[in-house]
Amino acid sequence: MNAPSTSSTDRSTDLNMISPDMIAGAEVLKASTADKDADGLGGTVNLIMKDAPRDFKLNVTGETGYHSQINGMGRYKGGIMASNRFFSERLGVIFTASADQTDRSNDTFNAAYKVNGNTPTPGFDYTKPWITGVSLESNLEKRQRFNVNLNMDFDLGKGSKLKMSNLFSRMNRDRDIRQKRYDLEGTRLRFQQTDRNSHNTNITNMLQGEFNVLGATLNLGVGRSSSRTRTPYDHQMQFRLNAPFTADIDALSYQPPYLIANSKFVKEDDLTQYYLYEAIFNTEFAKETEYSAWLDLKKPFSFGEKVNGYIKIGGKFRQKERSLETARRYRRMDLSEGADPVFENMPDLTPSSFKNSYIGITDFLDSGYKPHDFLNNKYKDLCINFALDHNAMRNFYNINQDIYGKILTTKILKDYDGNENLWAGYIMGEINFGKYVTFIPGVRYDFSQLKYNAYSGSNVPDNEEKEHEFEYEKSNDSDKYGYWLPQIHLRVKPTNWMDIRLAYTETLSRPDYNLLAPRTIIKPNVNEVTWSRTNLKPALSRNYDVILTFYQPDYGLFTISGFYKDIKNFTYTRSAYMLNGTVTDPANFDLPMSLSGGSITYPLNSPYNATLKGLEFDLQLQFRKMKNFMKGVVFSANLTLMDSKMNYFETLKSRIKNPDFTPGGTEKPFLPTNSDIIYTDRLLKQPSLLFNVSLGYDYKKFSGRISCSYQDGVLIAEQHRQDAADVESTRPFVKWDMQLKYSLTRQFSLYATLSNFTQSSDRKRRDITNYPSRVEYYGSAAYIGFKYDIFK
Minimal CA–CA distance to 196: which of 269, 140, 145? Predict the structure, then answer.
């Protein structure tokens, strides 16, 4: 059963929705067999829910803890688990429930850059990017999570059984997002605060049976999963301070971005000068429902004593329904149409000292706000020294909500609905040649049928601030495709301490929902078109894996694996001029020829393949057979080395002189032209090195683990210029954690967790200057909890 997506635009699932108390284990499949879904280029993770053990079990857990970002208690959790077996242990029932509240506050620093032209900056061999703005963001966030799980299994006898699983998860997110932006392009300072409440609810129900029929095993099941992500309240107010910079803007724009907030360069201490510029209210509702049904038949066979195995055939049907609905209300508050009715509704509001007709900020300030060390004081000049009062913001919207105008543009740009039907069938086998060789051939056929609806408009405003009414219509598109996906495995076990596995598999990854929604958005004011259709194909990967495992039961195992992936049909977005007689001829997009010369942005599948290859080393050790202190040591380490290659397209839009131009004639002096350039780099968000290590010690009632994870920098913004001045990547990230557990009695135990105790941060940079583009800091956390087995 597939987990539903919790995103409004892509297929990702937030695993934070699921409490670990409900999970018995996780099965990681690096190379799938034909009876498994072929979704995913990097493998599959199967979460295994708990089954009821023998005898009555009942336990409760509790947890609390400290979070450095708020310098206070940021964690509260409670849980219960009860299970038993009935009717001579044929019926098993297990119930788990938990509720927790966790602080997820964080600080984020962002620097926005621009780089245009091809003339090198004096003293450099490249065009140096300049800063257009720097923002400081403090996100105060509380997450509440509720999980309920009820699983039942019934033994029918003779190898047959029924199993039912029911999972409910809900997450509430309450966020106050405070952002201060030093806008160099606009020569102003912006302070905006967002009050956002959202919640996500997941429900999964599954019924499956396993039956022994004439010596064969029949497995069949049905299931339903749904995800509802709703943002009913998202209110944002932006205040501005004009001309705060006291230094030359051009000189500032080439400084390291974290220096721009220095008091030598900006004067921002007079809060009475701020004025309310705009107010925005957004809502969003994303919905996904999936129905599944599957059937597998497995028949064992044997030919003598040396050859045996099984043949397995089966099929699966999935139906997915998706939709996204948005609404936006907006008002400029520095214009009379916004400020005048507000002053009528709230005559006691203090105006801005910058201009008496503007709404000031002083009545909205949080008098109890205390600044904290932004980014743990990594950059001493960065500070958010004031904040808006949460209740004052809500009161303002409640009184003035009728002033906010409805913005149709948001609905046209974002809303969509659609459905996907997937039929899959497979045949596979496992053939054992004695004890040493196992051959697992198989092939799977996946067929998909997609239908999506969205909106198109021919006179769409160029931003989401205008209330203009314009003509639009519902647009729809459909597509279907099918793929044969071979899955072939070979396992050789030459000795009882060595295992060799070879695999060739083919898998796929479907495009994100927002790219499949059929839209034609024409913005005549800026002569731009945004276009998308449902005809995008999934990315297809041919995977080669070699795995060597060496193991000794008393001490552990060591695994070496190599992999190679050849991936085609990656999706990218192209922006180009619409030119007659080329691939961007308006006729190819069913657009009028009058739009020729304008710009179009659209997604498409890359004609070039990407490759990913690597080596993985995994070591797991324990020394329980030793007679000294080493018997309590447990150690594990995993090292992955990867190399990837991808061709990235960039279309350079430029204008050339028109040879047919004559003054006073009808010809234009310049003609638009497209020049396609290909840059080769590593895959986006793909690290070249991953390393995880854990060292633990078990002694009688005590157990402890300390772990470290390391990820090398990844590419996040690919090259689109010859001098690579636009490339961005992350810096290496290291995180340390610790877990401790002590059993006071047979039924009562205590545990503690230290998370990110070295207080690492996520960091991104503009490669060519090494200046930061984004720094995100979550702080560290320390939790302590208990588990009490009332009946064990």
Answer: 140
Contact 334, 465 (CB under 8 A): no
- How far apart CA 116 and CA 653 sit, in angstroms, is 12
DSSP per-residue string spanning 122-149:
TTSSS---EEEEEEEEEEEEEEEEEEEE
Quick: pLDDT tens for 706-745.
999 999 999 998 888 889 999 999 999 999 999 999 999 9
Other C-beta atoms closer than 10 Å to the C-beta of 580 total: 11
Residue-by-residue DSSP string for 20-54: GGGEEEEEEESS--TTS--B-SS-EEEEEE----S
By C-alpha distance, which of 737, 757, 740 is closest to 704?
Answer: 740
The amino acid sitting at 541 is: S
Rounded to 5, what percent of the chain is helix, strand, coil?
A: 10, 60, 30
Q: Shortest CA distance to 702 belongs to which of 758, 792, 626, 629? A: 629
Q: What percent of the chain has pLDDT over 90?
A: 82
Predicted confidence (pLDDT) per residue in 300-349, tens digit = 999 988 999 999 999 999 999 999 999 999 999 999 999 999 999 999 99
Give the CB-side neighbour count of residue 179, counting CA atoms within 13 A. 20
> Which three-class secondary structure state does DSSP give residue 410?
helix
Listed residue (719, 693, 717) closest to 774, CA to CA:
717
Instruction: Find out whether 265 and 246 touch, Cβ atoms under 8 Å.
Output: yes
Q: What confidence tier does 30 reach under pLDDT thresholds 50, 70, 90?
A: confident
Q: Return the SS3 of 771.
A: strand
The amino acid at 459: N
Question: Where residue 258 falls among pLDDT bands split at 50, 70, 90?
Answer: very high
Contacts of 4 (CB under 8 A, 6+ apart): 13, 202, 204, 225, 226, 227, 288, 289, 290
- The confidence score (pLDDT) of residue 304 equals 87
The CB density around residue 501, as the number of other CB atoms within 10 Å, is 20
pLDDT tens for 560-591 read: 999 999 999 999 999 999 999 999 999 999 99
- If residue 398 lies in a helix (H) or strand (E), which one and from where to where? helix 390-400
What token pair was written down for 277? 């510029």
Structure tokens at 564: 């190679």
